Amino acid sequence: MDKIIEVKNLKKNYGSVQAVKGIDFYVEGSSLFAFLGPNGAGKTTTINILSTLLTKDEGEIVVNGYKLGEHEDEIRSSIGIVFQEGVLDPLLSVKENLEVRGSFYKLSKEVLKERIEKALSTTGIENLASRKYGSLSGGQKRRTDIARALIHAPKILFLDEPTTGLDPQTRKNVWNTIMRLKNEENMTVFLTTHYMEEADMADYVVIIDNGEIVAKGTPSFLKDTFSKDILRIKPKNPIGLEKYLTAKNIRFDKQIDIFVIKLENTLESIDLINEVKDNIESFQVLNGTLDDAFINITGKEIRE
């Protein structure tokens, strides 16, 4: 795939504070790209620079073939942004809000009408067009926010924690919209999120901490490299299992009546289970998660 965003040696300081310390990464076109980091890592600063909301101190950035610092208008025409907080007028209807947004792009009435109809259809909110934005549920507002970002047919959609605060079913509906944009419209989606199960759907993940990129790769690569599979055993005789594990120098943690053993890989569990099978009431073998990888990489939880 072609690189639709390229970032080289990006730096940004706030006085004596180095917010971004010379980072490099790229985003492939038509991909779902997850940009993760704890609070204060430099994530928001980077996104604001990419979307022309903030100036950089050093570095070279190219978005959709346009160089930042020389072609701001062209970059803005290439991107759509969905912020954490809604920016639409609560007293206007969904359609009226989209019309106001569309007017910024000096579209003809005919083109604007077509764009609004497509944005409503793509996000599945045609039946909400006449409803006031302020009367919508959280999920309906979020899909309207996405529709707003689609009016000018961008190639790249920035989503800043798009499902924070939504219930699981509503989050699923929003994600159906996001994946439809990626798969059917070939749109590049640049995502920040606090939900690791969402980042797990990404084609590629970059993790930033203290202004530096500390890990990058596919979700499976990060999990394989920075997390451990786990064997959980509930024994019939806890004292007997503890003696066995201690004698074999197998490290474990106890969670009430459950023994938790970290594995190098899932297959390692087979021999151990066979050795103690007569003392097993139940067991689970769990794959390492992106949450585990993130904590091992940064030493912090994503929601800190």
Account of the protein in words:
The chain has helices spanning 43-50, 72-78, 94-103, 109-123, 138-150, 168-185, 196-199, 219-226, 238-247, 268-276, 290-298, and strands spanning 3-14, 17-28, 32-36, 58-63, 66-67, 79-82, 156-160, 188-192, 204-209, 212-217, 229-235, 253-255, 258-263, 280-286. The protein is an alpha/beta fold. The chain folds into two domains: 3-92 and 155-223, Rossmann fold (3-Layer(aba) Sandwich); 228-287, Peptidase S8 propeptide/proteinase inhibitor I9 (Alpha-Beta Plaits, 2-Layer Sandwich), CATH 3.30.70.80. Strands 6-7-8-3-9-10 form a six-stranded mixed sheet. α4 (109-123) packs antiparallel against α5 (138-150) and α8 (219-226) crosses α11 (290-298).
Radius of gyration: 24 Å
Major sheet characteristics: 6 strands, mixed
Q: Portion of residues in helices?
A: 25-40%
Q: For the largest beta sheet, what order do the strands appear in spatially?
A: 6-7-8-3-9-10
Indicate the proportion of strand residues.
25-35%
CATH C-level class of the largest domain is Alpha Beta
Number of helices: 11
Looking at how many chains there are and whether they match, the oligomeric state comes to single chain
String of helices and strands = EEEHEEHEHHHEHEHEEHEHEEHEH
The overall average pLDDT, rounded, is 93
Low-confidence stretches: none
* Full CATH superfamily name of the largest domain: P-loop containing nucleotide triphosphate hydrolases
Could you say how many structural domains there are in total?
2
- The CATH topology of the largest domain is given as Rossmann fold
